Amino acid sequence: MNSRTLDSIAGFIALCLLSICASAASVHKIGPDLYAYISDNDSSANSTFLISDRGILVVDTGLNSQEGRKLLDEIRKISPAPVRWIVNTHYHPDHRGGNSVVGPDAVIISTYETRMAVLRPQHQQDAETGQQAAPEYQLNEVFAGTRGPVLFVGEHEVQIYHPGPAHTMGDAVVYFPDQHAIASGDLFLTNSCPAMDNGDMENWIAALDQMLALPVEHVVPGHFELATKNELRRFRNYLAELRDQVARMRGHGLPLERIQKLLMLSAFKTFRQYPQYEATFKDNAAAYYGQLEHRRPRRNGRKADEH
Ligand SMILES: [Zn+2]
């Protein structure tokens, strides 16, 4: 091998490294007029957008104005139409931080719980600073109960619903029947442990079963790679396995710390785990254990209802 060949190999490797470092968000067309935006920042949520000549609907807008700008730049490569609707799947900032950049005049669609969770901490802040926080929530169509609005964007139907408490108390899921696609919010993350808010693990699994029963081919997760039902099912099976193990061991009187040590989840060892977001096997076990404690507290290692 002469030095020129070595030089060109080195150049090629440098180019590959550069392209890895500069990896950008990816946009995938997943059906007629429908696109998945897969973020290149693990801390910022994915988005989904549906375009028509008269207006665009966007599901989730990323962590902050910078991430929102990246998303809007990608949307503008495809359509110049105004962003008229933004669905925030839940209140976590990484799903709504780009709202005012992506759609300054858009109507925000969310569950009632999401609105309350967004605005609750800010009332106090507003009083202190005199500033109005989350101004995009001035135009907010909320829904209570499980059935949200059905929208038509161009010729495509969009069904928004609340599956009950799951990742949070107020998750919204967006189903695109024409495109056989669904935007799950953080009810599903590809190949990863989720973070758990004060939702409901058992209802969460039921919500995933409900999604799996739909004729869906593309699943846009809250974070990470675009997925199909296969990855969705695997994630569902992880939660179900965790639920079963925690409930069984707790039923035998084991304390949480012992349960966390005894968990057998090697089938899911490739799942990402993020201690900084409390998104590990142990954190997920603790969250579910906490839900069970809340429902059926124990006294002296025995179930309260055994007394
Ligand atoms: Zn979340």
Tell me about this structure.
By secondary structure, this protein is an alpha/beta fold. It has one domain (21-245): Metallo-beta-lactamase, Chain A (4-Layer Sandwich). It is 36% helix and 21% strand. The protein has a seven-stranded mixed β-sheet with strand order 1-2-3-4-5-6-7. The radius of gyration is 22 Å and the shape is globular. Mean pLDDT is 89; it is low at 11-22 and 300-307.
| Helix residue percentage | 25-40%
- What name is given to the CATH topology? Metallo-beta-lactamase, Chain A
CATH homologous superfamily designation = Ribonuclease Z/Hydroxyacylglutathione hydrolase-like
CATH architecture assignment name: 4-Layer Sandwich
Major sheet, described briefly?
7 strands, mixed
* Nearest-integer average pLDDT: 89
- The CATH class designation is Alpha Beta
Features:
307 residues, Metallo-beta-lactamase, Chain A, seven-stranded mixed beta sheet, 36% helix, disordered C terminus, binds zinc ion
Fold blueprint:
Blueprint: H1 3-21, E1 26-31, E2 34-38, E3 47-51, E4 56-59, H2 65-78, E5 83-87, H3 99-102, E6 107-111, H4 112-129, E7 140-143, E8 147-153, E9 156-161, E10 173-176, E11 181-185, H5 201-212, E12 218-221, H6 229-251, H7 256-262, H8 281-295, E13 298-299, E14 302-303
Parallel strand pairs: 4-5, 5-6, 6-7, 11-12
Antiparallel strand pairs: 1-2, 2-3, 3-4, 8-9, 9-10, 10-11, 13-14
Helix pairs in contact: 5-6, 6-8, 7-8
The protein binds zinc ion (ZN).
Zinc ion (ZN) binds next to loops.
